[in-house]
Amino acid sequence: MEEIVGLEFEKPILDLESKIAEIKSLSSSQSLSISLSEEVKSLEEKRDQLMQEIFSNLNPWQRVQLARHPRRPHTFDYIQALFTDFTELHGDRCFADDPALVAGVAFLEEIPVVVMGQQKGRSIEESMLRNFGMMHPEGYRKALRLMQLAEKFRKPVILFIDTPGAYPGIGAEERGQAEAIARNLREMATLRVPLISIVIGEGGSGGALGLGVTDRILMLENAWYSVISPEGCAAILFRDAAKASYAAEALKLTAKDLKSFNIIDEIIPEPLGGAHRDFQRVVSALKESLQRHLKDLSALKSEDLLEERYKKFRALGSWKEGKAVKKKSKK
Questions:
Q1: What is the mean predicted confidence (pLDDT) over 165-188?
Q2: 156 near 195, Cβ under 8 Å?
Q3: pTM for the whole thing?
Q4: Which of 2, 20, 71, 291 minimizes the number of CB atoms within 10 Å of its CB?
């Protein structure tokens, strides 16, 4: 029987699913003459009700955990499901290839696109190879090289964001990590082709923003996107990384929060329990959204595209000034 992997707050659901799987296994045994279908049906109804109760009331920290779920789909899963004829391209033409970034050319239906995204691993070996989705400077330079290639041939760019942050190691800093990210921010602001980014899991700090200066920012319902991880914020503000749940609440990092601030443009809904429970449903919703936004962006002239992108990012963090309310003094 396949091991069921999940999170702590999912444990009651996982226990029920384990029982259901066990009963189904017994029921299909040749030596068992009685039917257990009624018991299975009762447990499945109980599981569905429990899922509704738990996943309809997730707090920000639980959504962060769900974004890190070991079974959550990664960039390459979306590339395989959404695109055809994907050809991966490698190297930054300066130093090396970065396996933390999967990038190449493909077709979204009949539309030729350049597609890329941070890739995490499943096994220990793959996670180490992909550096847990944390890109080195050569990853950001590879991304920029392909985006400039897309501009040369007038093709839209689709970017998947899923990283806890850029790699902070000594070697990465020596090779210009901050400069590589900053250059991407500057160059992406001026690329004369449609750019769409999708936060599919974690969107941490400059590591995510290095792929995030785009005309449209989409975000899966249980992803997070923030200037810092909840653990990093808690370690700085509270001197205790264990208070990450409080930091997650304060950071306003959920899709719902970011949509209310007009930081992202659209929330892609997920099934109860997360994208891994019904991946095809998420793929269908994301495909429809990508096609719709690409159609709108492709209709714009290059000058209008750049102007709209400029206005979008200039409006972030805006505020309104009001007159101070004078308090009445107590006599």
A1: 96
A2: yes
A3: 0.90
A4: 2
